[in-house]
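Task 17 of the worksheet. Students: predict the tertiary structure of the chain below and write it out as C-alpha cells. Keep your answer in the requested format; marks are given for formatting as well as content.
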Amino acid sequence: MGVVVCLALGVLPSVAARQTLDGKSISSRFLAMDEKDETHAGDYAMYLAAVALPFLILAVLECLTIPVFSCGRCCGCCGGRKPRPGLCCGRGKVPKLYSKLEITGSKVMAMLAIVALAVTMTLAYTANKEVSDGTKEAVVALTGNMRGVLNDVVYVRDTLVSITYTSSDGDAMSPAVDEGRNIDSQGRDVEKLIDDFDLYRALALNLSFAIPAAFLLLGTICGICNFRKCSIHLVLAMLVFFGCVVLWISVAVHSVVFRVTDDLCVEIESPNNVKSLREILGCADNSSSSFDVLRETQEKGQAAAVAAACYDLVDHPQALCTSPGVSGCPSSTSCSASNVFIFERDVRIGVAGYNISQCAELCADGSNEKERSVVIAGALRDHRKYESVSAVIGNLLQCNYVDRAIAQFSAGLCSTLTSGLQGIAQTQIAAGVLLSLGGVVLILGQKRFLPTSSSKEALGAVVAAGAAGGAMTAIVAKDGWGKDDGEYSYYDD
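Model answer:
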C-alpha cells in the first residue's frame, strides 16, 4: 500500500521538469514548440508517455497483487495471525482471537472507506459534468465555425454569379467550394472523433468507479452481517484490485488529456502563439489558398462595374456629364473606383434635381439622361454587391474562421473542460488509494468480520466460566450466519 500511495501522490517529477521517457528535456509549450515555433511531436508524445507511465505502473502492480496474494494464500503464507494449513507453511493449529475493538474497528474502517469513496465519486462526477459541458462548448465552437466556411463560400459564389458584371460562372469557383466542403467534412470528422472519445472516456470513468466500488460495498455489507463463507471477502478484495486496474488506466488517460488541453490553452491564450497555431492548421500568412479564385472573380467583376459606370458618366459619346441640364460633375473628368460614388452623390439632373438613381426611375423614357442613369445606377448597385462580399472573402483568405474558432474553442476548453479533467484525475487518484485500502480491509475482514459474541473478551469469559466448572470442551465460534469453514476461534486446551 505504501507503494500505491507514494506513486499516486508524488511520482510525477518528469511532468514538472518536462522530460521525456528517455530523460530529454523539452519546452513547456504545446507540441514541445521551440523558440522558432517549430513543433516536436515525437518528443511531446514521449513526454505524455512519461505522464501516463506512473499510473500504468500502478495498474500493473494492482493486477499483480491478485496472483501474488492468491498464491500466497493457497500456500498458507498470507493467512494473517491465524494461519491455515497450506502447501508451504501455515501448519499452526492455534488460531488467533480478535478483540471487540479489532472486530468493530475492521467494520468501521470498511464503512469509512465506503463513505469516503462516495464523497470522492460525487466530486468526480461533478468534475465529469464540467468536462462534458466543456467538450460540448468546444465542439460546437470548433465545428460550427468550420461548417460556417462552406456556407460563406456558397454565399459568395451565388452572389457573384448573380451579378451582371461577373465574367465567370459557378464552375470556375468550384475549387473554393471544394475547399469549403473539405473544411466542413473535417469539422464533422473532428466532432465525431471528440464525441466518440468523450463517450469512451465517460464509460471508462463510470466503470473504473462502479466496478470496484460495488465489490467494496458488497464486502462491507457482508462484513456488517458477519458473513464470511467461501472466503468471500478475499474474492471481493481481488475483484476490487482488478477494478483498480481499470481505474489507474483511466487516471493515465485523463492525466494525458489534461496535460494536452492545458498546454493548448496556454498556447491559445498567448497572442504571440496564435500565428503558430494558424500555421499548424494550414493558414500561414501570404500562403496560396483555394479561396483566391473568389477574390479574383470579385475584383474582376467590380472593376467591370466601375468601368461601365465611368463609361456612361464621362467616356460615352453621350456621357451623362456632357448632357445639358446636368450639374455637379467633378471638375476633373476622370472617373475611377475611388471617386465613382462622388458622381452619384453630387450629380443632379434636370430641373427637378434628380440624382442618378432617381433619374433612372423618374426621368422621361427615351431620354439620354435616363438611358445613361439606368446603366450607371445598375453598375453602382453591382459595385456595392461586390463590396458586400469582399469582407467575407477577406475573412476566408485570412482564415478568420480559425481565429473565431480558437477564441470560442478556448472559452469552453480552458474555462470548463480543463479544470474538470484535472478534478477527475485528482479524485480518481484519491479513489484508487481508498479502494486499495478498502481491499486490504476486506482481506483483514475475512478473519475479523465476526459478531462481538465471538470476540476474545466474550469467549474468554465463557472459557473462564467453563474452567471454573471443570469443563474441557472446545468452544466453536459461531458467525451470525453459521460456523465459518469448521474453524475454531479458540481452543481451551
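Marker's comment: The mean pLDDT is 80. The chain has three domains: 2-149+191-282+403-449, 292-397, 451-493.
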